[in-house]
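BUG: 3D viewer hangs when loading the predicted structure for this chain

Environment: internal workstation, default settings.
Expected: structure renders.
Actual: progress bar stalls at 90%.

Input used:
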Amino acid sequence: MYCVKCGVELQKGADRCPLCGLPVYHPALHEEPEAAPYPRCAEGEGAVSHGGLLFVLTVLFALPVLVCLVTDLTMSGGVRWSGYVSFGLLWAYISFCLPLWFKRRSPVVFFPVAMAALIALALYVCLKTGGRWFLPFAFPVGGALLLLGEAVIVLLRRAVGDRRYRALFILGGAAAAAGGLCMLIEFLLRVAFALPMRWWCLYPLSALGLIGAALIVIGLCPALRRSLYKKMFI
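Structure tokens produced before the viewer hung:
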């Protein structure tokens, strides 16, 4: 056997070249694997369950609800102000904690659920305060937000692959639609609460419209997309 670097003949069993010092590799010898520097249990052999943490979060949400209800019943003799706290915490739990219980947390499913809970909260507040603004204001605004958000989520999930630049068109259209939603909100405020038209909606409409137009122009111009990607990783 000879050294692969300098060609000197090596003695049998030599572990280094006597001339250049190159380590000698013996294919017939099998090295025993060394002990792992960390326990095998830390290698992630099984999926980690978050059930305990979610249970603690559920208790943390339920505890203030129970305290508020008991305090309200004791001091007021009924459910007066505690309902607002309870429904508000319930909406927060549905929006942020409920998806964690499922392995597949699809926003296509959980976003409408969270928006429906928010609309239900607005209905409860309207009924408790004796107002008449739910149908002429809260319901159409909540429905418009639900439709716009769901459309954006569904379209963005389809904008994958080599044509990811299509997300620019989706976001640009969503920005323009959000500006139109501001006009709808001001109009519904005038209908529901008899407020005068101040045309404040023109400010977000112009800003969001400009942002939407810029995103669409970027999506239409490949050279501009490449330049922004190189400079800003967009």
